[in-house]
Amino acid sequence: MPIFNKGNLNNSDFHLPYNPQLVSRAKQLRQNPTPAEKKLWQGYLRTFQFRVLRQRPINHFIVDFYCAALKLVIEIDGESHFTQQGRVYDHQRTEILEGYGLSVLRFTNDAVLNDFEAVCQKIEYISSQTPLQKGG
Fold it and tell me: pLDDT for 10-21, tens place per residue?
């Protein structure tokens, strides 16, 4: 897995890096969500109190869900995330996203599909504890 360069990008004048080459792939992912992504979107995030974007390009990544007001990334992890290589990649990716001042919240497919209420409660709790950002 590649090692990504990260810097101290956590300042109020910074805008998240955006890779326009990922737009078509992000659109494909939005049109073909996993069952867990679809359930979380349809059952909760679509009508969440803060605007949430699906399959949002940030830097060289496409995050599953992004809420600018909360500076929150929500990732739904399937089987590929549980390999050693997947865990290392996720750790590097999380560090980079956190370097932008974002919080990363991860759930497994299984948690979303089988413990949906707890997933929603966790997101609700995090949103109540997070200071709002200007322009979110």
Answer: 444 457 888 889
